[in-house]
Design a protein that fits this description.
409 residues; Endonuclease, Chain A; lipid metabolism; transferase; lipid biosynthesis
Amino acid sequence: PPANQEMRIAIGDLNWRPWMEEAVAARRSEAYAALRAMPKLGNMPALANNKVKLLINGEETFGAIFQAIREAKKTILIQFFIIHDDKLGRELQSLLLEKAAEGVAIFVLYDRIGSHALPGAYIDKLRDGGVQIKAFATRGGWLNRFQINFRNHRKIVVVDGLKGYIGGHNVGDEYMGLKPPLAPWRDTHVQVIGPVVACLQESFAEDWFWATRELPPLSLPDEFPEDGVLCQLLTSGPADAQETCSLFFVEAIHAAEERVWITSPYFIPDEAVTAALTLAVLRGVDVRLLLPSRPDHYVVYAASSLYAFDAVRAGVRVFRYEPGFLHQKVVLVDNEITAIGSANLDNRSFRLNFELMLLTVDSDFSSQVESMLTADFNLAREISVQESHETRRLHQLGMRVARLISPIL
């Protein structure tokens, strides 16, 4: 396709040699074997020598992102599912206008459906200030009618081709924990420096090309840190040859020998994921799910609840996070594999959304994620087997109706 041809031309001038060396180093490392099918499942290679930093909740996440934007010299790439015209959204807007005035090239991509409430005046102000901003929207016309369900759920920030940010936060005051009844909001992002940032840029460039038929500038440093960790960016979407996102969860669960902990705001698994969870329990693996205790969408919450009760009866330990709404998407496998990104454990992420997960293989980073999740589990209530049996009949009927329509949720 022309997109691939243009992409090849755009990236052909870059110095890929140091990046290729990190891909080769990754393949030679012990950590590579832990990824099993992941490097072939994704379209991008595993890469050695990345530096990753966990960002817990909105203040830490946007504090880091805004600081990186302030320090930008050449380019800023930004992609979110939701951008709101509120306190946080306007803070981002004024920061971008400031940097555009300094001559920094800025590209902003938002999902048309996710950001349906974003006023034209917000967009116009950015455009007038020299920021390139576009909506990711599915094509019109009869042939593409089925695409109406597609959403670009990815969240990416890349500054100067050096620093990248990926995770669960969108741009809105609720993500800062400022909007009851879902406050305090619980979410997780990750900052990454190293060769995997090139993959974040490539993912952004493909989505930008889809929206604009143009490519943003991409940049690669001439060298990478020496003593970093192995990372792989896993992109998934409805155009994939296979169901990448569902297969990712299945493979992560199958890879677990001691434990697999998964957090997700929604739990609407397909048969393959359900089978993988059941088998992991039978293998003696510590299988835990952390879900919200309050809904942001009632029908989805009802369907999730019924699947959660099924999981409890299969021996999965299911917890409901009590303090506020839980939106983070985190997977922890054994003592070295983690995945953090935008993908939920539900049908929409499996089949309809464009998603991103950052896989990391490192025991130190894994233990940081373990500490974070342990603190979350300590603020959660475990669903008992008895509770899963005792749910009121009428309530269960509602949940069953919700489950009936779960393939389209």
